[in-house]
């Protein structure tokens, strides 16, 4: 059983002046290694959380929390009315907006490019997405039915060479049959807005037009492709969509953002896990330095251990003495590492900006990267997990040297004293 005697001797061994200064150096190196490993883990995980948050927010500024589609990816006016009534009773659904998803070709003179075209109701779209806050020129409100306005991404605008007020010809994949033959459906639109989300896949290939203008162009009649939803808690989207699928029946299909972008966020999670494993090896190496430290301490204290044994100290108590000594090294390293990691993670943006100013170089050039600032999101769960794992690993590293100390035979150790 653990008693204060073991604690007293273990702490005394830790702070006592050793004859072998190399042991002290190894102890300090072990503490420093744990500090660096724990700090690096917390900072890197916080930065990866920050990047994940930025990517998620930028993705969800274009993609809805959830969406409802019908058979053949069409919803009739009757379907839309029925769904609006059904969703009114769902407290988890904050807002909804109809949309048309289609693909087409955009052309300005000799420049032609493909694009994902979305027909929207600007008033309702504002309630389910953040696209209106991403406008850099013009406004989403300039999309009015019958005026054939077009809002394009910044990269798409540059590719077409079309700015505000310029004409863009939109070609629909459906064709019309006339006496002159098959003629592609097309319509001239005026650019009334430019948005920038900060993700190439959206800024380069997405364009918006009013729902009423998209319906005749893509031969949708009065139908829509689906209904976009905003939920009160996007992290509960899978559970909410499962409930909606049950309540709406088999005529409709509800999907959420975790399914629409499953591969992307799964890749981010895997990258974070791999990075955690790689950096945790730093902590493991530092923790196992405790083994060499304690082995040398046990060798150095052979006579002390033998005397304690002759005074009646049991092998279990001897073992506890050295477990306490090694655990203290691990605890100090973990504590300092956690404090340093939390401090750096909370101020990483300021630290990076200061370093960039000192060396006169931008780490993430805005000409290359859409996210040019290094974000950070410190999570208590990560701090607790890293701290506990580092300390537990440090304690485990003490077991073998402590066991060797407990096996010391007094007669053998004192033979040449």
What keywords describe this structure?
417 residues, 2 domains, 20% strand, alpha+beta
Summarize the structure.
The chain is of the alpha+beta class. The protein is built from 16 helices and ten strands.
Elements, N to C (H/E): HHEHEEHEEHEEHEHEHEHHHHHHHH
Q: Give the percentage of residues in beta strands.
A: 15-25%
Number of strands: 10
Oligomeric status: single chain
Largest sheet: 6 strands, mixed, barrel
Count of DSSP-assigned helices: 16
Estimate the mean pLDDT confidence.
Answer: 81
Class from helix and strand fractions: alpha+beta
Number of domains: 2
Give an overview in words.
With 417 residues, the protein is α+β, with helices and mostly antiparallel strands. The protein has 2 domains: 4-58 and 264-413, no CATH class; 64-260, no CATH class. The protein is 54% helix and 20% strand. The protein has helices at residues 4-15, 21-60, 77-88, 122-125, 154-160, 200-203, 211-217, 237-248, 257-260, 262-300, 302-310, 315-346, 348-359, 380-397, 399-406, 410-413; strands spanning 66-70, 93-108, 111-120, 135-138, 149-153, 167-178, 181-195, 206-210, 226-231, 252-256. Helix 1 (4-15) crosses helix 12 (315-346), helix 2 crosses helix 12 and helix 10 (262-300) packs parallel to helix 15. The radius of gyration is 33 Å and the shape is elongated.
What's the topology here?
Elements lengths: L3 H12 L5 H40 L5 E5 L6 H12 L4 E16 L2 E10 L1 H4 L9 E4 L10 E5 H7 L6 E12 L2 E15 L4 H4 L2 E5 H7 L8 E6 L5 H12 L3 E5 H4 L1 H39 L1 H9 L4 H32 L1 H12 L20 H18 L1 H8 L3 H4 L4
Parallel strand pairs: 3-8, 5-7
Antiparallel strand pairs: 1-9, 1-10, 2-3, 2-6, 2-9, 4-7, 5-8, 6-7
Helix pairs in contact: 1-12, 2-10, 2-12, 2-14, 10-12, 10-14, 10-15, 12-14, 12-15
């Amino acid at each position: 059983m653990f008693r204060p005697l073991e604690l007293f001797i273990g702490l005394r061994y830790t702070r006592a002046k050793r004859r072998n200064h190399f042991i002290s150096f190894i102890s300090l190196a072990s503490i420093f290694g744990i500090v660096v490993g724990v700090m690096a883990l917390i900072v890197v995980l916080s930065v990866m959380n920050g990047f994940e948050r930025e990517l998620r927010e930028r993705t969800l500024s274009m993609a809805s929390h959830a969406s409802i589609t019908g058979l053949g990816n069409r919803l009739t006016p009757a379907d839309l009315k029925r769904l609006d009534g059904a969703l009114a009773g769902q407290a988890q659904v904050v807002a909804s907006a109809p949309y048309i998803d289609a693909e087409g070709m955009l052309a300005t003179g000799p420049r032609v490019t493909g694009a994902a075209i979305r027909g929207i109701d600007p008033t309702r779209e504002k309630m389910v997405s953040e696209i209106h806050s991403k406008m850099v020129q013009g406004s989403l409100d300039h999309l009015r039915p019958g005026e054939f306005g077009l809002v394009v991404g910044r990269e798409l605008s540059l590719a077409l060479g079309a700015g505000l007020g310029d004409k863009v010809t939109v070609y629909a994949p459906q064709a019309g049959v006339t006496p002159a033959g098959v003629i592609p459906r097309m319509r001239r639109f005026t650019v009334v807005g430019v948005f920038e989300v900060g993700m190439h896949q959206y800024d380069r290939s997405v364009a918006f037009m009013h729902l009423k203008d998209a319906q005749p162009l893509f031969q949708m009649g009065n139908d829509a492709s689906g209904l976009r939803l905003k939920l009160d808690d996007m992290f509960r989207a899978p559970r909410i969509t499962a409930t909606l699928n049950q309540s709406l029946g088999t005529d409709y299909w509800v999907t959420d953002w975790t399914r629409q972008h499953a591969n992307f966020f799964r890749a981010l999670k895997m990258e974070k896990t791999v990075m955690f494993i790689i950096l945790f090896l730093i902590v493991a190496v530092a923790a196992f330095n405790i083994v060499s430290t304690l082995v040398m301490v046990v060798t150095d204290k052979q006579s002390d251990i033998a005397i304690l044994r002759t005074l009646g100290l049991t092998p279990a108590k001897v073992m506890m003495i050295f477990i306490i000594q090694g655990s203290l090294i691990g605890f100090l390293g973990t504590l300092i590492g956690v404090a340093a990691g939390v401090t750096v993670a909370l101020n990483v943006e300021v630290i990076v900006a200061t370093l960039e100013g000192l060396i006169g170089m931008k780490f993430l050039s805005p000409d290359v990267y859409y996210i040019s600032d290094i974000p950070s999101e410190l999570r208590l769960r990560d701090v607790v997990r890293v701290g506990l794992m580092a300390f537990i690993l440090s304690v485990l590293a003490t077991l073998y040297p402590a066991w060797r100390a407990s096996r010391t035979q007094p007669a053998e150790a004192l033979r040449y004293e």
